Amino acid sequence: MGRFVIEGGRRLKGEVNINGSKNAALAIIPATLLASGPCVLSNLPNISDVDLSFEILRKMGATVNRQGKHVAIIDATSINSTEVPFNLAMKMRASYYYLGALLSKFNEANVAMPGGCNFGVRPINLHLNGFKSLGAEYRVDRGIIRLKAKHLQGTKIYFDVVSVGATINILLASVMAQGVTIIENAAKEPHIVDLANFLNSIGACIVGAGTNVIKIKGVSKLKSSNYTIIPDPIEAGSYMAMAAITKGDVVIKDITIKHLESIINKMESIGVHITRYDNSLRVCCADALKKADVTSQAYPGFPTDMQPQITALLTSAKGTSIVTEGIWNNRFQYVGELCRMGAVITVDGKVAVVEGGKRLTAAPVVACDLRAGAALVIAALGAKGITEIENTSYIERGYEDIVGKLTGLGAYIRKV
Ligand code: EPU
Q1: Cβ(291) – ligand 1 distance below 6 Å
Q2: Mean pLDDT over residues 351-371, rounded?
Q3: Is the model's pLDDT at 126 over the cut of 80?
Q4: Domain 3-19+231-415 carries which CATH code?
Q5: How far is the CA of 168 from the centre of ligand 1 (A)?
Q6: DSSP state of 260
């Protein structure tokens, strides 16, 4: 699993490059299955979840040739299997995007119930009901979701909860369905737009991605393309919090600022100084931070995937901050680890009350998921003494070369 050893109290200074979006890559890689030739994907993050998605494609018969760390040529035309290997599907939530992609291509898909970070029950009823509306039958057999359709027929699908994953799966399943599919109350996250842009680049006909109504006119064949994945807003936001807690001065490069508005706004409200450039931000923090109330919401609201990181930062802000988790039922499991470092936080259901302003102290802590791990890195960078964080593989699922990047900014961090 691995352990990070971090000596806190060093001011971060310098420049850091942000890699491609994990969650966009994990939707676009399965989408290459639909292309009728090789696709070149650029700005892929070099993280373990991307490797896992490539392994799934290869096991099903595709060829994936990496060209350096961030580019891959994927030829999925030789895929002849409709089944994602059970052991691989179990390792990653986003393996369920192969349901939509395989169903679209073969009218059949067999994928294990997905694994992934544990924030409480993570239902997939919206995905399955959406596939059913398009004409697929489904059953769950020994932990495997089995979908089958005679043909897929476009229809209107309304989600009563905004779901990123269900929006992506229905986009994938409907691009080659007969007629028009309309998704109402769709998710609007940047990676939904990125997936739609990729699909359009291979010949799909999708309009409205980024709004809550998406229209997909089915096409009979999709071509190949070269496509560049958007920067990762959550990686960028995490480094912003790291800069702020160390009272640093860091330029966050290769980002799309409009995807970061809610994070910038919240950080400015607590006293972090942010200067905007075209594709970068300078984050400086000289003064004491102020308390804030934060509620995570679907995009363009404050992202749930930044909730642990902002909570870690608010431990250093004077006063009482209230953090409300608006998406997941159980996303405060990391709070006990922050308290081990001296944080004063109480949790009642989906609300955490942070009594901030006292510097944290180092402790041995354990990351329980990806963003929880990022929160512990932030806490450790600001804390007094040497913190050891267990379970670094969670963190490495979503943060490329975090040790190298932080070392480049002047942090003391080692992986042992
Ligand atoms: N929901 C349902 N039924 C469904 C699907 C979702 O009720 O069929 C509910 C969920 O229980 C939750 C809400 O809808 O309360 C939103 O869930 P969503 O489907 O949007 O989440 P997801 O697609 O499983 C993706 C990201 C998560 C991120 C969420 C919310 C990927 C691979 N994962 O998950 O990212 O937290 O959207 O923005 O894109 C992360 O990167 O750390 C991460 C966990």
Answers
A1: no
A2: 96
A3: yes
A4: 3.65.10.10
A5: 11
A6: G
